[in-house]
Structure formats: structure tokens, C-alpha cells
Amino acid sequence: MTAADRTLRRRDHLVIVAVALLISFLQRPGRISPDTKLDLTADPIGFLTRAAHLWSPDAPMGQVQNQAYGYFFPHGFFFAVGDVLNLPPWITQRLWWAILLAAGFIGVVRLAEALRIGSFWSRLIAAWVFVLAPRVMTTLGTISSETLPMMLAPWVLLPVVRALDDDRDDRPLWLGAAQSACAIALMGAVNAVATAAAVAVAALWWLMILIRGVDRRSTLVFGGWWTLGAAAACLWWVVPLLILSRISPPFLDFIESAAVTTEWTSLTEVLRGTDSWTPFVSPERAVGAVLVSEPAAVVATGVLAAAGLAGLAMRAMPHRRRLLILLVVGLLAICLGYPGALGSPLRDTVVAFLDGPGAALRNIHKFDPLVRLPLALGVAHLLARVRIPARTGPARRAHAERGFAAALVVVIAAFGSGSLLWTGGLAPAQSYRDIPDYWTQTADWLHDAQRDAPAPTRALVVPGAPFADQLWGLTRDEPLQALAQTPWAVRDAIPLTPPGAIRAMDSVQRALSSGRGSPGLAAALAEQGVGYLVLRADLDPSSRSARPLAVAQAIARSPGLSEAAQFGPMVAPPTVDGVVVDDGLRPKLPAITIYRVDGAAAGPTLVDAAAMPRVSGGPEALLSVEDSRRRAGLPPLGPALLAADAARAGLSPSSPLIVTDSPVDREVDFGRVDDHSSAIRSADDPRLTKNRVPDYPVDGQPSVRAQWLLDNQPGQVRVTSSGSAADATQPGRTLPASSTAAAFDNDGETAWASRGLESAVGQWLAVEFTQPRSDLAVTVTTAKALGPDVTSVLISTDTGSTVAQGLKPGVPTRILAPAGPTHRVEVRAIATADGSGGNQFAVADLAFSDANTGVPLAIRQRIVLPTLDAADGVGGWELGPELGQRSDCVTGPGGRVRCSPALGLSSETPGVFNRTLSVPTETTVAPTVTLRPVPGGELEALLARPGAIRAEGRSSVADPLGNASAAVDGDPNTTWVAPDPGSAGTKHRPALTMTLPQAREISGLRLQTPSDYPARPTRVTVDLRDGGRRVGSTTVTVGDDGVVHFPARRADTVVITVTKHSDLININALGFAEDGPVGVSEVQVLPGPPNPQFDDARPVQIRCDSDPTGPYGLGITASGQVHRLQVTTTAGALRRGEPVVATACPGPPLTLAAGEQELSVNPGLAFTVDAVSLPVSGAPVASAPVTHPRVDRWDATRRAVTVDAADADRVLVVPESTNPGWHARVDGRELTTVVVNGWQQGWLIPAGTAGTVALTFDLDSPYRWALGLGLALMAVLFAVVLLARLVPALGRGASTRRSAGVSQRLDQRGVVIASAAAGLLSAYLLTGPWGAALAAATGIVVWRLPARRRPVLPFATMLAATAVLAAGPWHGGAAYTGYGIWAQSFALIAVASAAASSLFSRER
């Protein structure tokens, strides 16, 4: 038997399975990989039980289970069997991987045998190439549900080939169709598109046979049986999928966009197999990240692609035209959205389609089997045709040697590409051994705490995180997802709830992550159905989540939240001596702390429809309204109706309308949960994010938008920029105070800043006038930013440009713009102080004036609320910056204060707060303004203590709990933190200047420092001064007790300069190591007592008679009226950054005239506006008391409550996400749906209605029937195939076997012309007109080449494309060459030459 005739035997199968097992068990043995879904390893049976229902009340906020049904078979079934057999989850997982690898390997070999492609050994190598393709290695350890369909694609195609192409097979057509359908069934439906893409290989093959015309009757008969078999295989998941499509929230709008999924789909990347976008953006896919960034990996995979194309170009390759058609179709499916050089002319259309109607197809890399299978078979054929050099003539031997060398390179590349397998790289490094017991204890406690509740409240896990990445390992899914027995929720990156629910959760997330807390938080949580907060401290710092320490402080500062339980040990990121993490902001905390929410009641509620408050705004505004009510001493708001939802339901509550400044027009980075929103946008601002929608929408509610004014006139000017740190596309967290508005607010403390981590040179800020302007003078004031200062700018207009040099931060520079009328003036950075490109360009102020008269052009931005209807009865306005200020400091356990600039964040409106209101009728309001202290000199003046030591010095933060004053405040829990050594530079050593109330004798100091962070001074220089005259200077080592001694001198000033400090490495929030700063908690002057403690109770007043133009001139302006504000608070509240309520001074009321009215609040220099409440004088206070109906039944999809009759219409509220699948009926009569709180279920119960209200998720029954009958039908399919195998007579049947047909002889010239035209059209669709021309030229070259040399061209040009890409792979240290024209051109030539080789059969 020759190598070409040898086929796989049973013992070969055993060897393959053994190798697959070895490979799988080498991947981090003993650890569970975060593969596909946590439930499969944590509780597969419980998961499948829950998946039997379409709706899950326990899932976050209540939601439909997105494609959970797809796990029933085979994925979930396999893991359930492992669970029943008590196999450790990691072993079950590795067995699963081994089965996938073995199935794919054997399938490719069997397919090659049926197609008569290659030899025994070349088929094995081809199978190795297929199962270790980049897509497989990228997905197997993290999302094997996508690997499964690809591994079974050969098995779907194999029966088609045997039935219609292989004369050796005598099985009836129906059996082949049924076998193929079984392979389809085994693909499951975790991802329906991946399954369909894998089946497309066989479907296209069948279609090509049908078109070819070989015994079309048999082909059609097979197609009929195949369709029936596929229906039996897929009915169990197709029907649930169709049901789901009717009721699922539009979550596809909020995940990766088509612009991202198509970003790296060049021909070179796709041919070598790196067509998935995830390795390019996620280092978690460790193997994939190596394959896209390492030149060696690029070369190995590129060589294999070149070999596959060369094999397909060989004239002896069986079925090469069909295989090439599959390849080209695959390239068309994947590459049409490529944005680089020689990209498709349909790019924009394709991206729009994938973000719109074709959103389900957005992850186009799932079509990889169409490309990978032909290339693998091409490798099999190429290697089989290689001759081993023998003792023949020199010319023939040289030719054989060259072929053998090329084949050897291919074999080495094949095994080299899979070398990462032997290092255990398929499983992520964050794989874990087990979920810690404290998570199970938490789930059990939550269940026990509500064991007797008919409808338990929800537990909200905080802080939210895009994915669950813990110190002990990455699960991706939340641990409670698999463990919880009661409702729970978390704000993660892929919420499968309505947009309104996400916005409501975001308001809570902001309140907690800021560390500020909220007076109305408990009431808002109770209204959301949240009865418990689960604070976790085991998140990894790299999880892009809020710091648990800040969340703990926010909870402590929010009344109505009380600690209920703790579980687990004290946890913190692991460190070693001399190393801290995240500026010391992650101290040890209990792994889990559970807090109880006061006032949270379980189950449904009833509320008077007419009494329900109406709110104009988004769901996120309800927390702000609750805050305002709490400060005013009012009861909680209760269930509320958004104005848009009330109108949609036809309700007209009698309560007056509460107007808020939400929803705000923003862009959002949907992949993050914190600091992911842009600054407020104007109507004509360009879109920067790539998703179809900019933000989670609020249906029917107009947005609050920014508007630019020129001399107080709208529509006259527009401000644009190259980008800002306030954009949602900003790397890291967004800085809302750094938008373009900051350059026009007449506040030198704020500045527009370009996006971080980009070159400062080339960044620009521009003003566009609707009417041309002449003779302009431009005054530019730059500001300090990241990196070296910008020193030169280019001022460009429509008529020319001019350069200004020598700019310094904070110093205005007046520049005359080029003469002549211009519509646009641009300020562009062109040079920095050190001659480098810099990092960031910042402009504190950009002013324009008439160059001749000096008259300024006043440009500013205002925020405009939507217009209200004249009939709207307004009860008040609740306003405020949605993205408020955050402190630099946070208080941890034991009162220890920790400070870092990574914590602080300026408000998006740090200075004067303005809103333009729509006032239906003249209205009198009683304003109340909530202020937040702003660190700075003005706040320090309010905190100054007469007769106490004062301290000054450069600090890393301005907060009084962490600046120089913290070193002398008598509180060892506060610490002065010097600037970061990297930012301070070598010129400035950390220094502290202490000014004593009066001169006295000083002979020593006692320095008290924290034990962990910041670094401890070990050597200092002490300068003593008296009346400005130096009287002594000593450099001394700091003792272990912190005491330094020096000769006694009489002095009134002490300057401490740190010349040496303990070694401390800080791993910052981005994961980079840096030198830690130095700091001191307390400095005690010796001899003398300790510093007196700060008097927190000392009253602080800002009175009505303060200077209105001074730093404390607080006031509110509207309708031409100016009203002064007064503040009474305490020094402790100011020092801690707590909110301060400012009230109107005595005088006439504030009256808002009808129409558009601009409201401005001046908070002075010591405060920023946190909230503005404008209740209408005399308006009734809206509040909706609730009652609790009797719950008779409360299941996942069927519920029943009993209501008594009432004289008024009521709304039945269920604190779960609204969904069109839910229906409520009384005596068979459908109740009207009402959306409550912007996202919750509600139904209108007419007056006089009494009895049982039946709540049913009507689609759950057809869902369950489809699952049950469909799975039964699939079982019948498998039983038939198994019976045919057990009963040989059923597997034979000449009457059903296709008869030997004669191919219809098509006109070969016509076939060639049509094929060439189709090829050129494909080239045009892939690469545009220039690409089509290049493909045509390639075809001419191929036509001129001898047939035996034609495979050399695709091999060589694909190698050239690979070499270009290897010179600049993604994140390889050089510029990425995958976008360039050379790699794309060479890859196009490679594909075109392979395709053309199949058209020209004659030898030349």
C-alpha cells in the first residue's frame, strides 16, 4: 500500500486522541480556564435547569437568557455528565478540549481521504495545520464554543463529498444526509452564526455540485434529505432563537462595533488565520496576542498560508476550483470591511450593515472555516507532491532539492506555529483552581436571609467591572452568576438589560466609585429592588474597576446602608517588601462585606397612578432627585414615571413635572463601566466612538446639549479640536473638565487638553465662524499638561498662517492672525520645550478680539435643556453636573486617609455652572445649591487655624487631607504626599516649609510616617529661619523613631528637605512600576507638645455681606436677577470634602420669566456646584406611597398577585426589567403596560378592579416546547444514524444511491470567461479598482507562465506579504504594516494567481 492509499486506522485514532489529551492536559493542569461560561464548570446542571426558562428573574435586573438554550447540547450536556461523574471541573474541561482537537484532526484527514487529496503523512500535517490554526489556538482555551463548529465543519462536508463525489461509497443518500445533519447537531447553538458559518462550507460545496450538473436528480434528492436532517438537528435552537429575537434588548448596539471587528481583516492577516479582533485588543488571549505581535509567529503562519495557496494552484489538485471558490467566498465574507490600503470600496456600506440589520454577523471572523479548510487541504496536496531527492540527473535532482527544502520549511512552520501548545499557553495565565468558599458562603447567606420571602430582593455586586477578574483568577462571568439562588445584579461590560436599566445602574455606579456617597442612594436602591450590596475586595487592580476602598467609603457616607455580614479573609493584591500597588489605595479589606439597604421591600407594589411623580429626564436622574429630597427632609420619591413613558402609556398624573438636566448628549465607551463618558456634546459635534449609537438611549426623551455662543448669539460659531481628554476615546479614564469648553470659560484653572498618550505636536484647537471675520487678534494661554510644554504654535486661517514661539504655560500670548476674512482659525502645536513630539497640548484660554479696536469676541458654551410644552405644569428643576468632582483622598479602615492624584477628578463644570431652561409660564422658585469644596488657596484660608503651625510645600494632591497642611494637622491618619519623583524632576527635592505662630527655640523634630505608603524620609536637611534670616542648617539621618536632633536655635520657620528616603516601588493603576513618592504624616517640633488636633466642629460661615466679586462671592443669576447665597458649615465638613448646602439670602424670591432662561450659579473659588434645586414655590410635593399586594405565586415566568378594589387607577410595579414578553391579565383581560422608573415592569390596573392579576411570560411555553420537541427530534436523528450503523442492511440501498451520471459538458471558454469575470469582480469588491487591475495583470502573468511554475507565484508573493507584515506586526515595536499597500498587494497577487491557475489548464 502506498502512502497515498493508506488511510486512518483505529489505532491511528487512538494515537490522535492520546496526543490531543496530552496537549490539553499540558495547559495549566489543575486550573480552570475561563472558557465560554463559568456555569459550565461551577454548576452545569443548575445552569441547564435555569436555561429551561426564557426569563431569569435572578439574572441582573431580570432579563431574558441570551442563547442559554444553545448550551443544552453538546456543550452543557458534556459538562453535566462530568459533574454527575464527580470529575474535577478542570479535567472535564480538558477532556472537552481534547475531543474538539481530535475531532477536527480526524475530520480533516477523513475529508482529504474522501477527496483523494494528499498522502497519509501530508494529510496528518494538514490536519495539524487546521486544528492549530490561529483561530483555534485563540479560542480553544477561552471560548471553545466558537472552536466547536470549526472542528466539526469537515464532518459536515465529509458525507456530502462521499455521497456526491466519491464513487467508492455505496451508502444511500438519505444516510449521508443524516450523518451530515448529526455533525450539524453536534455544533450546538451557543453561537448560531458560528454554526451557520461552519455549515456554509458544506452548503456551498453542495451548491457547486448542483451547478456543475453531475446527476442533478441525486444532488437534489440529497439536498432534500439534508434539509430535513438539518431541520431535525437545529429545530431545538432555531425556534428559541427566533423567539429571542423578538424580545431581546438591543445589546448588539452596546458591544464591539463593526469598525473594530473589521479593523485587522487585511488579506494577509485573514489568510494566515489572525482574522479575529480580540487578540489585537485583549492580552488575555495570550496565544492570540503572540500570533499577532511576534514576527516569528507571523512568519510561521504566513508560510503555511503560502503553502496552502501553492497547493491550490497546482494543476493536479483535486477539486481545486471548488476549494478556491470556498476560499474566495470566505475572503469576501471577512475582508470587505478592511479599512487599510487597497481596501474594499464597500467598506462603509458593509460596516453600516454590520452595525445595523446585519449586527448578528458582526464578528466576521466566524467565517474562517471557509478559508482555513481549503488552505489546509492545499498544504496536504503540496506536501504530497514533493519528491525526495534521489540519484538522478542534476537538473531533476536540483528541482527535487528545492521542492524538498520548501516542503521542509512548511513542515517546520506547521510545528512551529503550534509550539505554544507545549508551554501551556492555551489557558490564560489568570486561570484559577476553584472559586473561593467565601463566594459560596455569600450566596448561601443571601438565600437564607430571604428564605421566607415570596419575592426576594436583589443583591447588587459592587464595584462593577467589565469582567470578573479577581486576585485569585479570571472567571469573566461573576461568581454569583453560578452560585446565587436569589436575584443579583452587577454593572458589567455586556448588560443584557434594557438601556434604561443600564442608565439606572450607572447612576449608582458613579455614586459608589466616586467615594462620595449619596444621601438618596438607599432610597434609589430600594426603588430598584436592591435589598443588599455585596462589596467585594478581591478584584484584581487590572480589572478596570473602581477601587473597593472608595466604594466602602461611599457606602459609609450613604445613610440607610448598614453592614450585615462579612465573609472570607482580608485580601489585597500580593506584594513584597518595598513594593506597593496603586499608590497604596488597595489595603487589606474583607473579601466580601454585605450591606443591608434600609426600606427595600421585596416583591410587587401598588401605587396610585395619579400620584406618581413625573420626571423629565432619564432613569439616571432619579438618584439625583432622591438626593435632593433627602437634603430637603422630604420622603422618598417612590415609583416614578418618566415623562416620555407616561405619554407613551397615555397617563397624565396630577403631580407636577420634575425637570432634570438629563439625559445628556454624550458618547460612551461601552467596554468600560467607570469614567467612560465624554463631556457634554453639541448637536454638530462629530462622532468619535464607532458603535452605532453614542450612548444608551432614552426612548422619546430629547437630550440636553451644549451650544456655542458668539457674543451671546447661538448659531454663529463652532469649536472643534483634534480630540480631547474629555472624549470617550481617551485612553484610560475620561477627564470631562478638559473639553473644548474649558478653553473659553475665562477660568485659568481649567484647560482644554488633547487626548493623552498622543503626540502634543500636531494637536489643534479650532474656531469656525458662520460669517467671515477679519483683523483678528488671537490670545493663546497654554497650560501644563503631560510631558514637555508646548512652546510654539501655528495660527492658521483661510488666508494664511503665522507662527508664535516662546509660549509659556499660564502666560497669555497675543498673536495677530493673517489679514483677510476667514471662517476658521486653528491653533496647532508645532514644537515643545525639549524638541520632542511631546505628549499632550493644553490651552487654558483662547480669546479673540478685533486687532484694531481691541473689542473682544465673547465665545462661550452653554447647556440647553429641551423645550417644554406650555401645558406642562412644572413642580421644579433638579440640576447638576452628572460627572461631578471626586476627591484625591479616601478614608480607609481605622480612619487612615490615603491620597493619590489617580483618585481625584474635576467636575465637568468646575467653575460657573449654567443651564438654559425652558420655562412654560412665569414661575417663582426657592433655590438651594449644593456645593463641594475645591482644594486650593481659598479653601485653605477657610480652614486656617489661628495660632497653629502652618505648612506649605509641593504636594502630589491639593486635597487638605494630603497636601502639606496634613503634616501639621494633629491627625496621624492624614499624610502629606510629595509629588511623584518622575513628575517633580530632579530640580525639586521634596520639601516642607513650616511657619510657627511665633519664634521659639528648636532643637529637633519628630517625623511620623505610615508603615507602607508613601516612602519614609531617611535623611533630611533642616533649615531654620528667623524673620527670613537663616539661623541654622543641618543635614541629619532620621532615626528609627523618626526623631532628628540638631543644635538648638531660635526660629519661626523650619524648612525640611528630604535628601534621601526608603526604597519604595509603586505599581501604578496602569501596571507600570515607578518610584514611590515620599511623605510625612506628622511633624512635631521639639521641644514642644504634639500638634493640636484639627477642630472639625469649628463653624465656618460665608455670609450674605461677603464681597460679591471676591473668592467667596456666591450667587445665582436668572432672568436678569442676581441672588446672593450663604453657607453655614463646619471646618471638618470642608476638610473632608463633604457637600455644603447654600441657601438664598433674604430678599425677594427668584422669579423665572416664561420662555428660554439662562441660569448661572457662581460657586466662588472655594467650591464647585454639585446640585441645584429649584422647587416651584407653593407646588405640591410629589410622592407616591406604595402598598404591597398579596403574592399567591412567584415563579420565574408565572406569577399571581391578588389586588383589592380601589377608587382610582393604580399601577402594579415589579422591580425587574421591562420586556415585551411579559403580560398581565385580570380575568383574561390584558392590562396596559407602563414603564416605571424608566426601566421597570408596570401595568395599569383600572379603578374598581379586584381579583387575581396573572403575570405570565407568554413566550416561555413555546420556548420550552420547542426545546423539548426539538431535542427529541434530534435524538431521533441520532438514533436513525446509529441504527443504520448497527443494522448493515439499512446502510445499503442501490435504489437510493446516485446513479453514475455524466457531467454536462459546459462550454469551457464560457466557463473561463465567466470565472475570470467573477474573479475580477471579487478582486474589485475586496480591493477596489486598483486591486482589480492588479488581479487582471496577475492573471495575464499566470496565463503566460508554464503550469508547473504557477504554484511558485502564490507561494512567493504570500511569503513577501508575510515578510512585510513580520517587519511591523501589531504592537511589535514598529509601525504596524498590516494597513499598508505592500502587504495587501502581495497577498492579493497570491490569491489572484492561485485562482487564475485554476482557469488556464493548457501548458505553455
Automatic annotation (TrEMBL):
Name of the molecule in the record: Membrane protein
Task: State the taxonomy lineage.
Answer: Bacteria, Bacillati, Actinomycetota, Actinomycetes, Mycobacteriales
Against InterPro entries, the record matches this protein to: AftD_N (IPR021798), CBM_AftD (IPR056997), Galactose-bd-like_sf (IPR008979)
Q: Among its keywords, does the record have NADP? A: no
Gene Ontology terms for molecular function:
transferase activity
Q: Does the keyword Membrane apply?
A: yes
- Could you tell me which residues belong to the region Disordered? 676-698, 717-739
Q: Which Pfam families would you find in this protein's record?
A: CBM_AftD (PF24607), GT-C_AftD (PF11847)
Could you name the domain of life of the organism this protein comes from?
Answer: Bacteria
Q: Tell me which UniProt keywords the record has, alphabetically.
A: Membrane, Transmembrane, Transmembrane helix
Q: Where are the transmembrane segments?
A: 95-112, 124-143, 183-208, 220-243, 286-311, 323-341, 370-388, 400-422, 1265-1286, 1352-1373, 1379-1400
Where is there biased composition of kind Basic and acidic residues? 676-688
Domain Alpha-(1->3)-arabinofuranosyltransferase N-terminal GT-C, residue spans? 20-693
